[in-house]
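User: Could you go from structure to sequence for me? I need the amino acid at each position, not a summary. Structure tokens:
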């Protein structure tokens, strides 16, 4: 629990980010800083059945580093169904999530498989707050473009239901 009561006004300047230490991340092999604020935010899903977040984060990091040869977990952030935001590579670090688009984008994964279900409203709201903070702190360009992974690659990611939500999320971002 992050202490936020449903129905309570959301403080747009606050989002609880669970740091790497809390999910037992191993050290990255290497990291590259982004040269300028991200111009694009690319939305993914993990396509894994949701279980408890801490072991799932460690599992994803292991897959990305051992099986796919990445330097670290590929995503910059991950969002669980209960609306918690987990630090992947974090802000300002080049990710490994969308080939040929990593250098100027932030990769955010919703945890779960959204070919089968809708992302929770808690997860959607966490995304909006996270991006608000990202712009406020200069990590993301104010006029950034929000895309689904399938907009830039041949993949079904981020799943039918999450992809179908992106226009609504774009509207909410513009009005926030
Ligand atoms: Zn993806």
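Assistant: Here is the amino acid at each position, in order:
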């Amino acid at each position: 629990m992050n202490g936020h009561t449903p129905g309570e006004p959301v403080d747009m300047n606050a989002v609880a980010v669970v740091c790497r230490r809390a999910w037992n991340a191993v050290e990255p092999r290497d990291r590259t800083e982004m040269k300028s604020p991200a111009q694009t935010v690319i939305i993914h899903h993990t396509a894994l059945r949701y279980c408890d977040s801490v072991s799932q984060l460690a599992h994803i990091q292991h897959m990305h580093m051992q099986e796919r040869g990445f330097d670290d977990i590929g995503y910059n952030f991950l969002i669980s169904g209960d609306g918690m935001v987990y630090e992947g590579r974090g802000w300002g670090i080049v990710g490994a999530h969308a080939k040929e688009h990593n250098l100027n984008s932030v990769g955010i994964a919703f945890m779960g498989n959204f070919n089968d279900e809708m992302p929770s409203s808690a997860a959607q709201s966490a995304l909006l707050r996270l991006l608000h903070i990202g712009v406020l702190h200069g990590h993301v360009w104010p006029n950034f473009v929000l895309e689904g992974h399938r907009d830039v690659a041949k993949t079904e990611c981020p799943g039918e239901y999450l992809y179908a939500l992106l226009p609504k999320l774009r509207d909410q971002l513009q009005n926030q």
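One structural detail worth keeping in mind: The CA atoms of residues 44 and 109 lie 4 Å apart.
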